[in-house]
Amino acid sequence: MRTRPLGTGGPQVAPLALGCAGMSDHTSPADETDALATLRAALDAGVTLLDTADFYGMGHNEDLIRRALSAADREKAVLSVKFGALRDPDGHIVGVEGRPAHVKNALAYSLRRLGTDHIDIYRPARLDSDTPIEDTVGALADLVQAGHIRHIGLFEVGPGTIRRAHAVHPIHDVQIEYSLFSRDPETNGILDTCRELGIGVTAYGVLGHGLLTGTYRPPAGGDPRSSWLPRLRPGHLAANLALVDRLRPLADAHGIGVAQLATAWVLTRSQDDLTVVAVLGARRPHRVEEALAAVDVTLTQADLDRIDKAVPAGAAAGSRYAAPLMALLDSERRAHPMKTGDAS
């Protein structure tokens, strides 16, 4: 699979990345045999970037990745790790920590769990409103200088925060939710800022947390994720699935599924002056194979126009996250919701 640098001077990455959260977190962990086989399938197919966090399964996800990586794989893999989200014993996110001492302490534990001497991209999971981003990035810069991390990334922050961080040390990657259902990075300055500063983008939520797979069916009794994903709630779900139905004829015309169409759309955002990588969550090997098909899909401008007409920007019903999680976002991200109105 072809690769390109993630940001100016950043690591070489394939257009698809593997998001590993679902193997250890969310509604229930994946079967470990399946999870390890999925990691192996991705690496064998040429997927380079593995996205994880120290709070995915309270360290379980990092341990899982360590067991999947051989010494040779470690040299080829780009490990992207988030830190700083604080959880209580029930697994709820209860805060964000970005103080320099915590940055270095969290890294020490991640290096041990991952069984490696360095992490390729290390990033705060959210913006700590009590710690200036300059202090957090300053600590990360110390770790780059010491050789413990190779590159610095950010997560779910706005243009002002990106610029302040980049002034302290070059940022190579900003991870944001970006999909046909979440298009605010196009209008709130994030993509333009990354393009200007030579920063890559890793896009998560590419399939709208399952809605854009084209196969989503709510479980009996409702989807437990709806407590923090309002778009899955009964009041919004029918409208969002109706939008997905509009994409089916377009996918059929290319002989692919809706999921591959939605992924291919995100990949078209990658241009000569901006690298955009699509982070796909998968828990079973065949899902990796399905996702890889999107890399070979060519969408013409006419295709893109038809997609925009079928699912216009801002069309998704409901906010991205429930109010408590929205409150943890950078204020610049909260100020540009894709759909005005409730966070319920």
Q: What is the count of DSSP helices, taking H or I runs of 4+ residues?
A: 13
What portion of the residues fall into strands of 2 or more residues?
A: 15-25%
Indicate the low-confidence ranges by residue numbers: 336-344
Rough outline: globular
Characterise this structure.
Helices cover 38% and strands 16% of the residues. It has helices at 32-44, 60-68, 71-76, 100-114, 133-146, 159-168, 190-197, 234-253, 258-267, 285-292, 301-310, 323-326, 331-334, and strands at 4-5, 12-13, 16-19, 49-53, 78-83, 85-87, 93-96, 119-124, 149-155, 173-177, 200-204, 276-281. It is of the alpha/beta class and 344 residues long. An eight-stranded parallel beta barrel has the order 3-4-5-8-9-10-11-12, surrounded by five helices. Residues 336-344 have low confidence and may be disordered.
Short description:
By secondary structure, the protein is an alpha/beta fold. The protein has helices at residues 32-44, 60-68, 71-76, 100-114, 133-146, 159-168, 190-197, 234-253, 258-267, 285-292, 301-310, 323-326, 331-334, and strands spanning 4-5, 12-13, 16-19, 49-53, 78-83, 85-87, 93-96, 119-124, 149-155, 173-177, 200-204, 276-281.
